[in-house]
Amino acid sequence: MDNQCALTVLCENSVAGPFGLVGEHGWAIHANIFGRSILFDTGQGQGIIANSRLLDIDLKDLDAIVLSHGHYDHTSGLPDVLRQCGKIDVYAHPDCFLDRYWNKDGASREIGIRYKRSYLESLGARFSFVREFTEIFEGIYLTGEVPRVTPFEPVDPNMKVPGPDGTLIQDDLRDDQSMVIDTDQGLTIVLGCAHAGLVNILTHVANHLPDRPIHTVIGGTHLGFAEAEQFEQTMLALDKFAIKRLGAGHCTGLANSARLFNHLGDRYFFSAVGTRIGCGIQE
Predict the structure, then answer these.
(1) Eight-class DSSP state of 15
(2) Domains in the chain, start-ordered, CATH in brackets?
(3) Sign (positive or negative) of CA dihedral 33, 38, 43, 46
(4) What's the pLDDT tens digit per position in 104-115?
């Protein structure tokens, strides 16, 4: 299989450079994979267009868009992207349009997708809904729903959806999915927020592609909200799976990013806006 694969971070909480890039609380990464141009998530919408231009990513040439889950900080740039690229396949889980809330200490705020499906379709989105582990192009997979098998990776209790009677109940975030790229070096896993749990995701991918080593993981890990046991078990799993490269960002948090760097050493890099990697090798 062709080894050509380049990933470029377009939206993230921090900026690596060059000068003029915009940071935001959000995540988007562009993948040029085996000649395919794929956008994974779209951030909050403040930086996606300007950052793409500065980083020489032409959104008009996209072959597909993937949404990792239905939170505003991964989907709010979608209308601007659609205005650039026109009609395009958008891969997502059917739950991505659920009304979603952050609810803590009695205070709530909306955190779901800000746009109706019909509006996005009017801009050119052709939604293809995925629940299962699915190959969308040769050597490029979506995890679909990730089984929750570990006892130490709970869903964030502050995330809610309306129940049948309208009261807020726990959101289990079944729509959380990642993208998997199979290269000669091994698998690269592109995360959104890893709400399903990083170890659950690694296990799910390994179960579906058991003969392929996991080389690189990049994206949000949601470890910024992890209790001590979850963080320690995750570090053990990174060693167990022999991950060669981890580029965490977004919801990982600065403190736990530093701890991961301390544990992994030169196997770790910070995935800020402007970061470019080949699949498995940082440029």
Answers:
(1) B
(2) 5-282 (3.60.15.10)
(3) positive
(4) 887 889 999 999
